[in-house]
Prior knowledge:
Largest sheet: 2 strands, parallel
Distance between the termini: 27 Å
Mean pLDDT: 78
Strand order of the largest sheet: 1-2
Low-confidence stretches: 1-18, 225-258, 482-488
Number of strands: 2
Helix content: over 70%
Strand content: under 5%
Shape: globular
Number of helices: 17
Amino acid sequence: MDAPPAEADPSVAGPTGARRPDPLPRRVHAGYALGSLATGAFGTVPGLLLLPYLTDTLGVAAGVAALLVLLPKAWDVLVNPVAGRISDRTRSRWGPRRPWLLGAGLALAVLFAAIFAAPFGAGSAAGAYVAVAFLATATAFAFFQVPYVAMPAELTGDPAERTRLMTWRIAVLALAILVSGAVAPMVVTATGDGLAGHRWMGLFVAALIALGAVGAFLGTAEAPVGASESVLGTAEAPVGASESAAGTRAVATGAVAETEPALRAQLAVAAGNRPFRALLLCFVIQSAGVATILAGVSYFADQILRDPENGPTLLFACFVGPALLVMPLWSRLGARLGKRTALVAASLLLAVGALALVAAPALPAAAVYAVVALLGVGYAGQQVFALALLPDCVAHETARTGRRQAGVFTGLWTAGETFGLALGPGLYGLVLQVSGYVSSDTGTAAAQSDQARLGVLLGFTVLPALLVGLAVLLLRGWTLDPDPKGDR
């Protein structure tokens, strides 16, 4: 889908009188967006199915399962900034980012299938195997996601064009969530549930990841040159570079004057960027809130809606389907209000929708699905504006310092995001443990007490509402403009 042109965001400072870069070709928008098949599938399915796989198929206690889901992803807090620095310093004929899209993306697909291979059957050994396989998969994901998220700041120097690029990306991300989140449980059921069903599901999702990685690699092969020159205004063209139509010298996509000399120096630059710190912390907390919703889908469908077979698929269809329809509306709203204000509005809509689901036990199923659709509308805006503000932070700092910062900034961003996505299931698992949820190794959930069912409900509603809603307080006064009055 092609979003309507967005006006310049007043919260972003830009060079006075600079020539607006040419729009990116649609094939680059679409090619870059395909990478969200990989990020969406990996960001959704473990959060959706891994916790119930551990508790209801492998027989792991809910508290232990929460740690097994959390700890491997917590590793990303360390490895993601390293992946960013390595991609910043990569030199190849494909540029600094694209080799990682292909290599790490294919490794991610293979390792994801391995998570659900279950070579040890059920029990404690099976739980330990899942933790190790998940750790390896999270490492591969870091080396795919960090370069992937770093690319928009280097593909164009136009903030409005980056918003359009993010709109394409979030549209494909929503589709990836819909396909992987709705279809993956169906694959488990259709192929026999239990260990066999999860093995087939792992292969299905691995195929989606591979398609996204190869598609992003090939789709960005013809990305236009000269983007970084519009950001810095001083970058030198490589020897043999062609002249652009406007007569200016072209630079390879992602070419920036130089990097900081050491990882510690790069991290210090990111830590000293107050707008980036506030945006990152807000997004991490909100990611944890969204992840608690994902982690609770199967439990909510089973224990609250009493529809374990069709409930997860219907919940995901209602959550993601509206997001595909409202994306152009969010883009227009962002152009009118500014990205930060639109991010706050979308976040509050998501929080209010989650809180309203507390009444789900007393509501008809149709009303519950309608409220979930409201969550989906808020989620779409929350994702697109947070991700659109990130490259603005990166480009602003790069233009100010003249150094390549995208890898480290996005390394910290993806480290925080993946930690938040792991923290959500961890928190949800702890809620289940405290409320007395009973695990099973049969592939079918055990009968639960009223207290356990209350834990399922509160973890799916009140907890994410608080995380998403309160996080917006971090954005008070947020601006990239030296004059705070320039922000709306």
